[in-house]
Design a protein that fits this description.
Shape: globular
Strand content: 5-15%
Strand order of the largest sheet: 2-3-6-1-7
Number of helices: 13
Order of helices and strands: HEHEHEHEEEHEHHHHHHHEEH
Radius of gyration: 23 Å
Length: 330
């Protein structure tokens, strides 16, 4: 299942009213934006956190649209030198939204260059070395920094404290996912039979990006079958072919549960042995798989490690707590 592919720009909402879900968060953000517009100032700096694919970049774009200002996107890995950051900052226009994705990866030395820019709109750096060193300050136009992170826990405290607005995106409900699928299908002109929006939505790991990927893949099966509408039969056949079950679990998810249940008697077990067995990096497992498995209650995190829940056994057709139970191949 694709998790990090490029989003289709045409499917991204452009205004707050078009954004599905996150109701309380959007309600508060609307107040902050309206207040800034009435006062004729730029929006305070915004930190958006949450798992991949929930709409952090989309929300940053919406902020710029609602404020009616320019939008400049980049990512922390793309800024490796002070000169890179300085070039971005000095070219920003009045109240422009400067978006930095994966801001938790920002280098410490660059963070210190960013602090005066965020607080006082000044680019403060030292030119030259030793006796010839000279402090230089370049005034910047007021701007709004929007940072996005999938790992909010490792954003440094000094950087985090400079964001006046902090938003945490949560997973979507199945009903919200169905609305998102129906909206995307309408934009892409993909006819859906009744209830198909929900069938695709509930298998989308509560994540809009994945919903859009799955909608397109089911469309592929429909077109090859020479059907004009995505029917329930085609939909179920497509998911069976892709190895995606009713909860949205794929082969890797089931492999993780298999390892915990079969190899470690249900847990507890740490990420390192799971990583070694399935051949994925620990961070990949934690960010792309475990967070969802925990969210839907198939894995419990304990101080000793990960434990498979009763729901995990039931989903896989096993008797909970029986040590002799052996998981069939999936």
């Amino acid at each position: 299942m694709a998790r990090n592919g490029e989003d289709d720009p045409s499917l991204r909402p452009l205004k707050l009213n078009d954004f599905v879900g996150q109701k309380q968060l959007l309600s508060n953000l609307e107040v902050y934006i309206e207040s800034a517009r009435k006062r004729g100032v730029g929006l305070d700096h915004v930190l958006i956190s949450g798992p991949p694919g929930l709409g952090k970049t989309t929300l940053a774009t919406i902020i710029a649209n609602e404020m009616n200002v320019a939008f400049t996107p980049t990512s922390a890995p793309a800024i490796s030198k002070g000169a890179d950051l300085g070039k971005f900052l000095t070219q920003l226009t009045e109240r422009e939204v400067f978006f930095i994705d994966e801001i938790h990866g920002f280098q410490k030395k660059l963070e210190e260059l960013l602090y005066p820019a965020m607080e006082n709109f000044i680019l403060d750096f030292v030119a030259g070395e030793a006796m010839t060193a000279q402090a230089i300050q370049i005034p910047l136009k007021p701007f709004t920094l929007v940072g996005a992170t999938t790992r909010s826990g490792i954003v440094s405290e000094p950087l985090r404290n400079r964001f006046g607005i902090q938003l945490k995106l949560d997973y979507y409900t199945d009903e919200e996912m169905a609305i998102i699928v129906a909206r995307s299908a309408s934009i892409l002109k993909i006819p859906l039979a009744k209830g198909i929006d929900y069938e695709i939505g509930k298998r989308s790991r509560k994540t809009p990006r994945i919903a859009n990927h799955l909608l397109k893949r089911v469309r592929d099966f429909t077109e090859v079958a020479s059907e004009k509408t995505i029917s329930e039969k085609i939909c179920k056949m497509a998911f069976e072919r892709m190895g995606i079950d009713s909860l949205g679990l794929d082969g890797v998810d089931r492999q993780i549960l298999t390892i915990i249940i079969d190899r470690f008697n249900g847990g507890p077990v740490g990420l390192k042995p799971i990583s070694a067995i399935i051949g994925e990096e620990e961070r990949t497992i934690e960010d792309n798989y475990e967070s969802f498995l925990v969210r839907i209650g198939l894995i419990d995190r304990t101080p000793q490690g990960r434990v498979a829940s009763r729901k995990a056994y039931e989903h896989l057709g096993l008797d909970y707590g029986k040590e002799e139970a052996t998981l069939f191949s999936v």
